[in-house]
From TrEMBL:
It comes from the Archaea. This is Glycosyltransferase involved in cell wall bisynthesis. Pfam families: Glycos_transf_1 (PF00534). Gene3D superfamilies: Glycogen Phosphorylase B. Residues 210-364 form the Glycosyl transferase family domain. The keyword Transferase applies. Coiled coil: none annotated. The lineage of its organism: Archaea, Candidatus Micrarchaeota, Candidatus Fermentimicrarchaeales, Candidatus Fermentimicrarchaeaceae, Candidatus Fermentimicrarchaeum. Keywords: Membrane, Transferase, Transmembrane, Transmembrane helix. The chain crosses the membrane at residues 122-140. One of its GO terms (molecular function) is glycosyltransferase activity. CDD domains: GT4_PimA-like.
Length: 395
């Protein structure tokens, strides 16, 4: 069996949630079947500018085929177009234009799938939201598996997605809430599906090694991922700075990930940028807690990674997925405004036994629900079912 993963960005330097999710699954499944990745040359998800060399690359034993992006995204133009699109009635052609502006625009990638689709038994598409999935999935819908990573956001209400979620041969969701939302909104319950998620390795880490390497001696809370207003980072900065002004706390906020917004200049906000995987887990273990401020998440790898190290979390409670994770695991607290943020943060920082208990609960939750053997079995089970279905249809 030969399986192609299709995703907008792919590489060791890529820190996006769905892209990292894709990489982990592709590498795990490569132990069981022949896997390739079809992607673009982009690293920057704002402009989609070409960063990687076009062609074939081997990353951790997985063949990666990269195709150049032909049009960079003008984020100001795109944002203005998006605001107008969502604000008033419009023709379908405007939605198609929106998707082309969304990008990453690579007709070479689409043409490759058209010409070479027979070489692959199945295609697994990561995220519904981008050009690479929207224009190539319909070409191979009879053997397409979609990992949509959907949450309740404006684009999902566009008319172009009305039939899209009925096209794949199978859909693999991150959470039951995501599945319920998609089934309710698109009436696609007849499509083969499962709630799969992503695996997380339970690992030991060395917190002192992180502190010594990066010279961080203060007690700190940790944010991991894209530093972006869409991820709630603007509100996090506002809340953190206000908390510092109102209290005598010596707490520091450490940020790991690439920035696409201005980070406030503050003596207790430290941006480390992209760091190696080992350092990331050492950072988690060295932190008092991991904060996840996003209002829109379909899973949150950062949350699961925090719990895999036995570290508690503080999450944005307006995101039902994050709140549900916390209630099911009893591994973290949540807030919906500044006062709740302040109260939860003070409670977690002052009560070590509570942090320990929440972290332990979170680790058990990850172990039970997000171990890699469990995730791999679910993917392989769906692939096997689809393969048998195709064989039966062809007999």
């Amino acid at each position: 069996m030969k399986v192609a993963f299709v995703v907008q960005r792919y590489g060791k330097e890529v820190t996006g949630g769905s892209e990292s999710h894709c990489m982990k699954v592709a590498e795990k499944l490569s132990k069981h079947t022949d896997v390739e990745v079809i992607t673009t040359c982009s690293l920057d998800y704002v402009t989609w500018s070409n960063y990687y060399k076009e062609g074939i690359e081997d990353i951790n034993g997985v063949i990666v085929r990269r195709f150049a992006v032909e049009k960079q995204r003008d984020i100001k133009e795109f944002n203005i177009f998006s605001e107008n699109l969502h604000a008033k009635p419009h023709p379908k052609s405007d939605e198609i234009k929106w998707m082309e502006l969304q990008g990453p625009y690579s007709t070479k990638l689409i043409d490759f799938i058209k010409k070479r689709s027979d070489e692959y038994d199945f295609f697994i598409f990561f995220t519904y939201l981008y050009y690479t999935t929207f224009f190539s999935l319909p070409i191979v819908k009879h053997k397409a598996i979609l990992v949509p990573t959907v949450h309740d956001e404006p684009p999902v209400y566009l008319g172009i997605f009305k039939d899209f979620f009925k096209m794949p041969s199978a859909i693999l969701y991150n959470t039951q809430k995501e599945k319920n939302f998609v089934n309710s909104h698109f009436n696609n319950r007849n499509v083969l599906s499962d709630v799969v998620g992503v695996g997380v390795d339970l690992r030991s880490a060395e917190p002192d090694k992180f502190r010594n390497k990066y010279g961080i001696t203060n007690v700190f809370l940790l944010y991991m991922g894209r530093i972006d207003r869409g991820k709630g980072c603007g509100e996090l900065f506002d809340y953190f700075i206000r908390y510092k002004e109102e209290t005598n706390s010596t707490i520091t906020l450490v940020l790991i990930g690439r920035d696409s917004m201005e980070i406030p200049t503050h003596e207790n906000i430290i941006h480390l940028g992209f760091i190696p995987e080992e350092d990331k887990y050492n950072a988690i273990s060295a932190s008092q807690l991991v904060v996840v401020p996003s209002r829109f998440e379909s899973l949150s790898m950062a949350l699961l990674e925090a719990w895999s190290c036995g570290i508690p979390a503080l999450v944005n409670g307006t995101c039902e997925v994050l709140k549900t994770h916390c209630t099911k695991s009893n591994g973290g607290l949540w807030y919906k405004n500044y006062d709740e943020f302040k109260e939860c943060l003070e409670l977690l920082l002052s009560d070590k036994s509570l942090r320990t208990k929440l972290g332990k609960n979170g680790k058990e939750y990850v172990k039970k629900n997000y171990s890699w053997p469990t995730i791999e079995r679910k993917y392989l089970r769906v692939l096997d079912r689809l393969q048998k279905k195709i064989i039966s249809r062809n007999q």
